[in-house]
Amino acid sequence: MDKPYWKEQIGNVAIFARWCAFSVIIGVTVGAVSVAFHHALVWAGETRAAHDWLLYLLPLVGLFIAFWYEKADMPLERGTNFILTSVRHDHPVRFRLAPSIFVTSVLTHLCGGSAGREGAALQLGGAISGNIGRWMRLDGSDSRAITMCGMAAGFSALFGTPLAAAVFAMEVVSVGVMYYAALFPCLLSSVIAHQVALRLGGESTAFALSGIPTTVDASLLLRLVLFGAACAVLSVAVCIAFHRVGHLFKKYITDRYICIAVGGAVVVAASLLLGTRDYNGTGMAVIERAVAGEAAYAACFIKMILTAITIGVGYKGGEIVPVLFIGATFGAAYGGFFGLAPSFAAGLGMTAVFCGVTNAPLTSILLAYEMFGGQSLALFALAIAVAYMLSGYYGLYSEQKIVYAKMRLQYIDRMTK
């Protein structure tokens, strides 16, 4: 027999109260660790800028990272895929991942690896929350949900976009399926982590765009569609580069120590040949210049290759900020070909390319809202939707699953390329 209505409601209230408690624990814990990670990365960037010679240590840092992961019995290349697998299949994530990604990401940034930070935050948050769930002896369903809460909290604390962070944790695992049961705990964890971060010296990521169209006509819509298609092509190129460059290194240099050291040496040599340190670290200063309308035609492609080498050979950090770098510099440099203002096109490029590589359109729209203030949000959403539809079944994360086709309402259940 079905439970009486009042008993069912009491059970629902108990579940709600439990998730309130879990979300507070995750939000505070992951928020505090993530803001410490933020401050460590800021220190690494400032120290590297003050001491140019640190760049020459990148190959040695690579040897240390390879040694660390070998002794910790963890593969170098898995990264965020560990977390996605743990959500889909309830595979336990060892707690050692958290200190490992913290220390090795800071070292990568300190010595000039071309890497981001949000991917590392996803791993930090997922590892911490997943282990909290194990210590609480949660069942498989709740354990997966609490891991998603940690992903949302880590992303939110580090990047300062709580809405996008909460939805990203639910959207990125299985494309076409949203884990709505995790909406409330992910959102509460994300908001709490963001507030914790702000109170401990963290910051939100926001930009002021110029040149946003105030009137919409058929010509503008056509140009936005074409620009979204260009971002889709670029996002496919990013995914191919990020996956295959590392594979090429490992194919011809089978020893993990030699491989990561050679990859680091290539990044060092490229930085010296380019005569700039713009491509070392996250490159947030370059993103700010692109949003201000400063164009550099080769910047997006250089960042793509250097990040593909850095992450591909085993250095740690994240892929998301480099993707935003690539999208912003592409928009600023090439938006004029589509009749778009450089600053506006930089914002479009950031969110559309992000969508193309993560297959997360709702997250991308919320990211546009939180980073740019929501003005003419429908225009961003249009370019994002085109990039999502035309980017095919490529993705940054090999453990991401495409559940429903992009071009039609059809169940396909396949992994990304």
* Rg on CA atoms, Å: 21 Å
Side by side, the strands of the main sheet go 1-2-3
- N-to-C order of helices and strands: HHHHHHHEHHHHHHHHHEE
Cα separation of the termini: 47 Å
Average per-residue pLDDT, rounded, comes to 90
Tell me the number of strands. Answer: 3
Largest sheet: 3 strands, mixed
Enumerate the spans where pLDDT stays under 50 for 5 or more consecutive residues. none
Protein structure class: mainly alpha
Question: What does the overall shape look like?
Answer: globular
Instruction: Determine the fraction of residues in helical runs and give it as a percent range.
Output: 55-70%
The percent range for strand residues is under 5%
Helix count equals 16
Q: How would you sum up this structure, described in words?
A:
The structure is a single chain. Helices cover 68% and strands 3% of the residues. Strands 1-2-3 form a three-stranded mixed sheet, with no helix packed on it. The chain is an all-alpha fold and 417 residues long. The protein has helices at residues 5-50, 58-71, 80-89, 97-110, 118-135, 140-159, 162-171, 183-199, 218-252, 256-274, 284-291, 299-313, 320-334, 342-358, 361-372, 377-390; strands spanning 174-175, 401-404, 411-415. The chain contains 16 helices and three strands.
